[in-house]
Amino acid sequence: MSGDVTNKPLSQADYEALARFRQALRNFMAFSDSQLEAVGMGPQRYQALLAIKAKPGDALVSVGELAELLLIKPNTAAELVNRLEAAGLIERVRDPVDRRRALLSLTAAGAAKLDEVAQIHFAKLQESRSTIMNLFGQPGSAE
Predict the structure, then answer these.
(1) d(CA 98, CA 63)
(2) Which of 93, 67, 94 has its CA nearest to residue 79?
């Protein structure tokens, strides 16, 4: 556990807030899974495309970095990358610094597919934003 935990007993309101938060997460994930299923994309593929796109600036993601970002083993990430590449959603680009290392880039088709789904997800999060933000009340008000 983190060293930042205060060991103060949780109140009933704290437990209720945690339960509401977990329910909100489950609701969003159920929504997400149904949207992904509708476009024929699994959650892991979506998360991988999102991780590749979300890299700041012009930086590209390596297979190892993708494994870390998705909390999966490197060999699982390599298999996922192979499937994404075979589907035409990503391409491997040689690292200009270390030519032995491949970096990952979205193809035009991958970017379009990601955008299609990400637009829906972002809109849902925007719609749910105030509910999620208010789950724990205002700081200091849950006493």
Answers:
(1) 14
(2) 67
Phi, psi of 38 (to 5 degrees): -65, -30
Checking 13-22 for CB contacts under 8 A at 24+ apart, the result is: 13/137, 13/142, 14/142, 17/135, 17/136, 17/137, 17/142, 20/135, 21/132, 21/135, 21/136
Cβ(30)–Cβ(124) below 8 Å: no
134 or 61: which leads in pLDDT: 61
103 forms beta bridges with 62, 93
For the entire predicted model, the pTM comes to: 0.83
Find residue 62's DSSP bridge partners. 103
Rounded to whole angstroms, the Cα distance separating 54 from 139 reads 30
